[in-house]
Amino acid sequence: MAFRNFVRSILLALGLVALSGCGINSVPTAEEEAKARWADVQSAYQRRADLIPNLVEVVRGAASSEQDILTQVIEARASASQVQLTSSKGRRTASKSPGTATTRRCRTITPRSAPSPRPSPPT
Question: Rounded to two decimals, what is the model's pTM?
Answer without folding.
Answer: 0.39
